[in-house]
Amino acid sequence: MAQNDPNRVLRLLPLVTGGLGGTLLLLNRVLTPALTESQARSDVMGVILSALLILTGLLWQRVQPTLPEAVALIGKEGLELDATLSDAVQTELAWASHLLLTNTVTRSVVVYRQGKTLLRRGILSPKADVTPGPILKRVLETGKAVYLVKLSIYPGRVEFDYLPENTQGVICQPMGQGGALILAANAPRSYTRQDEAWIEGIADKLGHSLGELAWEEEAAEVTVVES
User: What are the transmembrane regions (predicted)?
Assistant: First the structure.
């Protein structure tokens, strides 16, 4: 399904106006039996103006490209949370995923940490388990995000079989120690710099919360052993 371009009419206006003006000038020249000197000068100015309008329209086509084509991702919509997480962490994951789904082009969210899939939300793939491939492993090891602007052109796309099969773009954002926030978009080249910065902030917050939970669990285990 193509995404509507709100500037389509505006971008086409100079082309249409210039073409129409040039056509009318040509008809006027053909239908006029005898041209005066002033009419000839007017025709020259009209041709120049029509050419400038057409050139402006062509430039606008390049400067203001059409929006990327969006598709309906294949899969069922749903929400899956790891039941072993505390209520507070489940609530935070649900809140963060809701923000991403409603305020960005994200249509599927996966939260992965230390070998476990903590959350899946949005359009879900039939495969629930995340098997880290080379791209996700690199994100986990380096702590640097990877944005695949058009997934179909990357050979490594096969590792994202836990996302909808027609996913257009993917962001793998590191999330604390051994964690990653994986987002699937329904249009290529659709995340802005502002989106990326915002996603990074949400991932850092989730990583901090999950890190605190892990620390509390370790402290509780030590207390039990000592007692």
Answer: 12-31, 43-60
